[in-house]
Amino acid sequence: MKYLSSILRDLGAGRLSFWCPGCNDAHQILYGTGSGPRWGYNGNADLPTFTPSIKVTWSEPSDKPEEQLDETKDIEKCCHSFVTNGQIEFLSDCTHALAGTTVPLPSFPPGWGTS
Ligand SMILES: [Zn+2]
After folding, report:
1. Is residue 109 in a domain?
2. Ligand 1 centre and the CA of 110: distance in Å?
3. Taking ligand 1, which is a single-atom ion, which protein residues have CB atoms under 5 Å away?
4. In angstroms, what is the span from residue 93 Cα to ligand 1's centroid?
5. Which of 3, 33, 79, 96 is most buried when burial is the number of CB atoms within 10 A of its CB?
6. Which H or E run includes 9?
7. Which residues contact 86 (CB under 8 A, 6 or more apart)?
8. Rounded mean pLDDT of 84-92?
9. Does 113 reside within a domain?
């Protein structure tokens, strides 16, 4: 892992990672040449722009205790954003609290990915 800036890490093999303040977790994209979907990256580690949008979906067990083992009750989660000039714009289909807002990309939490 390579430190590019307080908000961007290079994970190698064309993978870039940033901290998502909506998910409180790291997301990553692929850029450059190679297999798999690739995003455009403006090369600016302090004010990155990625194109097109970044969509992450996953599911979590129900938060009702009696439904937690029932996969049909899983809750679908979505994080859908545009990263432009260091700002992250969350689209309205996000399932987290920052849906519909635009905020600066935050620094990674202390101790995360410093190796
Ligand atoms: Zn996210």
Report:
1. no
2. 18
3. 20, 22-23, 79
4. 11
5. 79
6. strand 8-12
7. 7, 44, 46, 47, 48, 104, 105
8. 98
9. no
Distance CA 60, CA 41 (A): 30
More confident position, 61 or 115: 61
- The DSSP code for 98 is T
3-state SS class at 100: coil
Among left, alpha and beta (phi > 0; psi -120 to 50; other), residue 10 is beta
AA letter at 32: G
Q: Supply the range of the domain harboring residue 94.
A: 2-104
- Name the 3-class secondary structure at 71: helix
Question: Tens digits of per-residue pLDDT, 17-62?
Answer: 999 999 999 999 999 988 889 999 999 999 999 999 999 999 999 9
What is the Cβ-side half-sphere exposure of residue 99, based on CA atoms within 13 angstroms? 10
DSSP state letter for 66: G
**∠5-92-101 over CA atoms, to 5°?**
45
In angstroms, rounded to a whole number, what is the distance separating the alpha carbons of residues 20 and 112? 13
In a domain, 10, yes or no: yes
